[in-house]
Amino acid sequence: MEKTNDISKLIGEIEKISEIEKCRTCQCFYDTLLEFKEVLKKEKSDGELAAKIEEIIRKSEVTHNCLGCDPCYPVPVSNALSEMSGEPAVSCLPVCEPAPIKLQKLKPSWPIEQGEYIVGNKKSLVAVSTLGSDELTEVISKELGIDNFAIVGKTHTENIGIEKVIKNTITNPYIRFLIICGKDTRGHMAGQSLLSLFNKGINHEKRIIGSEGQRPVLKNLEFSEVEHFRKQVEVIDLSGLEDIKRIEGEVNLCKEKNPGRFERTMAIKKVPQLEARRPEKLILDPSGFFIIYPKKEEGRIYLEHYKADGTLNEIIYGEDPVLITSTAIERGLVSRLDHAAYLGRELEKAYLSMVYGFQYVQDRAP
After folding, report:
1. Cβ–Cβ contacts within 10 Å for residue 359, how many?
2. What is the three-class DSSP state of 172?
3. Is residue 179 predicted with pLDDT exceeding 90?
4. Among candidate residues 30, 29, 39, the one with its CA nearest the CA of residue 87
5. Domain map (residue ranges) of the chain
6. Can you give the pLDDT at residue 7?
7. Could you report the per-residue pLDDT of 57-93, keeping only the tens digit for each?
8. Are 23 and 17 spatial neighbours (Cβ–Cβ below 8 Å)?
9. Left (φ > 0), alpha (ψ -120 to 50) or beta: where does 282 sit?
């Protein structure tokens, strides 16, 4: 009787899995169904259970092999069936990879530093920093036109923000003027720090002399790069101003001065850049796996944790995916960094499914 109840529960799980399109069309699921069919035959189960499996088999259409999903839902069922039959479990390993998303690849070009910039005419002699006035960037781009500046963007911090300004400037010899405008950033004082840098430079600790910012240390620049910047550009101080006409007037004055292209371009020190790649093999987390259920009507996400043998261990629920993830980590339910990254991604996707109303399917793009 107990075994019959176990089989009924497993069929219930199979019916749930069959509702997921990628599982219903996967060779993993189909193999598990055939395994289930053999177990029912061996156990001489009643015809109703066998009929349910036959119906699911009939609706299944294999269109792909194992995709290496983590977790693979049919695996716990297959493991349970192998225990019943005494046959060794069939390992589920990815034998094919999902088709990659094709994105247009562009060769790296200027600006060399990543950031929220609007790039105009790369041969223009003017660069503009709007400091903490984020909206001003778009206004300048529309009102001045992209031919009238090389680059315009915000600068929020007195360290990394200024480093990016300098690196993008010294790698483009056409830039000869840097206009600082917009509201300065409170505490960081990026604008005041830029002016201090231009006027006084840095000390032996790479600290900007005279800066009022909290941490005005340029750790990722060489002394020669800072001096190159100070020689290459003239800084125009309009900090605190958002008047587009005044900014446009300064741009026109810079054009009239036009000292020409700077004498040389500086090659900056580069850090290693590695292209992300798929792991060579699928390594499962020995701490187990998760199944995620968003419940829109409750405004909650339920996270089921199963041990590696398929035994349900515990359930965590909550409204915030960050808190659910941190709780799972604190409980010791995740032992691999890649699994933690996976969990965070899937919980966020489950949360968004409740907000925007699309169907959440674990391991599938929304």
Report:
1. 10
2. coil
3. yes
4. 39
5. 1-97, 117-257, 283-366
6. 78
7. 888 777 766 666 667 788 888 777 777 766 655 545 4
8. yes
9. beta
The CB density around residue 115, as the number of other CB atoms within 10 Å, is 15
Cβ proximity of 232 and 185 under 8 Å: no
pTM above 0.85, yes or no: no
Cβ–Cβ < 8 Å for 126, 251: yes
Distance, CA of 300 to CA of 77 (rounded, Å): 26
Q: Is the dihedral of CA 354, 355, 356, 361 positive or negative?
A: negative
Taking a C-beta distance cutoff of 8 angstroms, is the pair 161, 217 a contact?
A: no
CA distances from 309 to 26, 75, 89, 121, 354 (A): 22, 9, 11, 61, 31
Q: The domain at 117-257 falls in which architecture?
A: 3-Layer(aba) Sandwich (3.40)
Q: DSSP string covering 179-220, please? A: EEEEPPPTTT-HHHHHHHHHHH-B-TT-BBTT--SS--B-TT
The DSSP symbol for 266 reads -
- The pLDDT value given to residue 93: 43
8 Å CB contact between 310 and 288: no
